């Protein structure tokens, strides 16, 4: 099953896909995402893993907004790994490293299908 990787609005779109069409994605890496839906539906995200990387000093996505997204996804059954870094909205090499490391952990936990995403 595909793993979404999105930054900023791309991450918001991936989060919306997870909530509106949970059957289409197996997991997600959401970089600098905010809650994309005012009233999210009650989605069944059981068994789905999500990495949410946020910036503590992000002028676009306030920390409580990304925390709200993490809460919504968790309450829907997803395993959410939320990490807040001392950054703004920009991406860094550490974001790439953390995302790759997370993908490798999913491979160990969930089997070879997650490994396919690393080499795609």
Features:
about 120 residues; 4 helices; four-stranded parallel β-sheet; alpha/beta; Rossmann fold; single chain; globular
Explain the overall architecture.
The chain has 120 residues and is α/β, with parallel strands linked by helices. The protein has a single domain, classed as Rossmann fold (3-Layer(aba) Sandwich). The chain is 42% helix and 20% strand. The protein is built from 4 helices and 4 strands, in the order E-H-E-E-H-E-H-H. It has a 4-stranded parallel sheet with strand order 1-2-3-4, sandwiched between helices. Helix 1 (9-20) links the parallel strand 1 and strand 2 (27-31). Helix 3 (93-110) runs antiparallel to helix 4. It is globular. The model has no long low-confidence stretch (mean pLDDT 90).
Q: Helix and strand layout, with pairings?
A:
Elements: E1 3-7, H1 9-20, E2 27-31, E3 49-55, H2 63-75, E4 79-85, H3 93-110, H4 112-119
Parallel strand pairs: 1-2, 2-3, 3-4
How does the helix and strand content classify structurally? alpha/beta
DSSP summary, beta strand count: 4
The total of helices stands at 4
The main β sheet shows up as:
4 strands, parallel
Residue stretches low in confidence (pLDDT < 50, at least 5 long) are none
What coarse outline follows from CA principal-axis ratios? globular
Q: Numbering strands along the chain, what is their spatial order in the largest sheet?
A: 1-2-3-4
CATH superfamily: Alpha/Beta hydrolase fold, catalytic domain
**Helical content, roughly?**
40-55%
Residue share in β-strands: 15-25%
Gyration radius, in Å: 13 Å
CATH topology: Rossmann fold
Instruction: Please report the distance between the alpha carbons of the first and last residues.
Output: 13 Å
* Number of domain modules: 1
